[in-house]
Amino acid sequence: MDSRIQFYLVIFMVTLATILSPTLAKLTPNYYDRVCPKALPIIKSLVKQAIYREPRIGASLLRLHFHDCFVNGCDASVLLDDTPTFLGEKTAFPNNNSIRGFEVVDQIKAAVTKACKRDVVSCADILAIAARDSVTILGGNQYWYQVLLGRRDARNASWAAANANLPPPFFNFSQLITSFQSHGLNLKDLVVLSGAHTIGFAKCSSFRDRIFNDTNIDNNFAANLRNTTCPRIGGDTNLAPFDSTPTKVDTTYYKGLLYKKGLLHSDQELYKGDGSQSDRYVKLYSKNSYAFAKDFGVSMIKMGNLKPLTGRKGEIRCNCRKVNNY
Ligand code: HEM
Ligand SMILES: *[C@@H]1O[C@H](CO)[C@@H](O)[C@H](O)[C@H]1NC(C)=O
Ligand SMILES: *[C@@H]1O[C@H](CO)[C@@H](O)[C@H](O)[C@H]1NC(C)=O
Ligand SMILES: *[C@@H]1O[C@H](CO)[C@@H](O)[C@H](O)[C@H]1NC(C)=O
Ligand SMILES: *[C@@H]1O[C@H](CO)[C@@H](O)[C@H](O)[C@H]1NC(C)=O
Ligand SMILES: *[C@@H]1O[C@H](CO)[C@@H](O)[C@H](O)[C@H]1NC(C)=O
């Protein structure tokens, strides 16, 4: 066949496939510019108010987006309450009595629906935007990145998938790599996204084994936690900050890893002092906040692109906790 005809045929088929398959639609930064230009400013201002009321909520919102994206893609499945037809993700082991921020999401949803005069902003996009805004508010403009938008919301959720897909804190390095790889994320993504632990807190039950049994841990750091927040028996829900500045997005988390002061076993797995590539990333981010900020944004966008529902897939939920009834 004439190579020019062949060329046009390929173009034609690609165009046709794109038109016929809305699932190929990609997320874009300006998705709401026309349909609801007020959406992004409203979300930012409500996230700001929520952080003012309770500084930890920024961390909680950031984690919600992560726990959404790692379980069947960024589709707001994490927000769904249990129903007679499915057991939701909220009571899965990594989430039960641990993920938080649902009231803020509800408040944001109500406010954007009112301002847009209809339900156009998906719950999945609200999670992505609130995560970015939290990071920027707690870290400064250096930590701003562009969020891609146009996700739609799932009509189901899975307790089992949440258990299977979210990495637990006792994972070792190779298990963490395998988990992230299963989501198309690499070593750099793992190290830089773990930097989210620059904000927020963990419960004693998440780090007890580490402070009693790990050897790759600073002695005083461990003894102090054993004496105060996290005894061998009891105090399961007592909280400790991931780093010494739990309401500031900064490089302190990585600096702690250099001194064996990672709170979770999985945190310290990223730095062992053996000169690995993972060690080199930790060292870089510990001293270069520009590199951390830039790479964090790139990896957050990558994580935010995990299997979004687009086009005619899914729906725009009216209530982030429930699928729509038709
Ligand atoms: C690398 C694997 C990861 C593991 C094993 C892990 C595990 C955990 C655990 C166990 C907690 C404390 C939960 C509790 O005790 O209630 C936690 C908190 C948190 N995680 Fe991760 N995480 C990982 C990666 C991430 C990523 C990729 C993000 C976001 C991009 C993230 C964001 C957060 C935040 C912000 C908190 C604090 C939440 C709050 O204070 O409410 N984590 N994580
Ligand atoms: C979740 O936590 C509640 C206590 O708040 C407990 O009763 C329930 O059994 C837990 N669910 C799972 C699946 O662990
Ligand atoms: C929801 O259902 C779809 C189609 O049956 C499936 O591909 C997807 O994995 C399900 N999601 C969850 C969270 O179970
Ligand atoms: C990590 O954990 C897995 C599962 O327990 C184990 O098979 C593997 O040997 C561990 N890897 C290292 C390097 O310790
Ligand atoms: C530490 O390791 C021992 C032996 O493997 C185990 O029995 C114990 O549950 C672990 N955790 C703590 C907090 O001691
Ligand atoms: C922990 O408590 C013991 C006994 O109360 C005390 O001797 C020790 O100095 C404490 N250690 C730290 C690091 O606070």
Automatic annotation (TrEMBL):
Q: What is this protein called?
A: Uncharacterized protein
